[in-house]
What does this fold into?
Amino acid sequence: GGGGGEGYAPAVSKAVTTALSDVMQVACDFYRKQLRGAPNAIQYLKKRGLTGEIAARFGLGYAPDGWQNLESAFPDYRDDSLVESGLVIVSEKSDAQGQNRRYDRFRERIMFPIRNVKGQVIGFGGRVLADEKPKYINSPENEIYVKSRVLYGTYFARHAIDKLNECLLVEGYTDVISLHQAGVENVVASSGTSLTQDQLRLIKKYTNNLTILYDGDSAGVKAALRGLDMAIEEGLNVKLVLLPDKEDPDSYVQKIGAEAF
It folds into this structure.
């Protein structure tokens, strides 16, 4: 937003946040539908050991190849809230009418909706099917999506965290989904960002007991130790579980089963 008196901000903000939430939900439904007709994406999820049921629970979808697929979900493709939401990118180049070209941010990616604690979709993580280019791209931040204040999976995990009085913290989307599928539901991820104080405060709303379960490689260990220091500073009772090298929570729970995990 530009300048102007601060008194106006809340009204504008409310309208903007509602518009962005609506846009995100429509996009989420669109990507869900696309997944049904994308055998390669379904194959990828099956190979990762995920069932159709868990994909439906977390609202996983697929962004097909092509520059303007979202046009079929949003007839007014030039609506600014699409750009504001980060779903559409405005190019520097103009078209024949002298208008700046627009295109979809997410193409040929498995789509992970990111929700706030109320369950509203506020952003997406998109993963390529092949191991190339950036493996994941995330929605840019906007009025409703501030990465440092969001933990992936909180909406689905909050009751289990509350009940078990412990939160498991992992790194990635598939770690959360895979553990849920195995029946371990008190788990969230700090995906798309290094752990922040705001995220730790969010955990603290539900429990004082945190268990960090990062990947077994050296980057995972380094990140876990950093998280450990921050959690202690925040006054949490924190444990660190080191997985064997080359394993992550997703691969490990699938290897040894939920009970042993």
The chain is about 40% helix and 20% strand. Residues 1-12 have pLDDT under 50 and may be disordered.
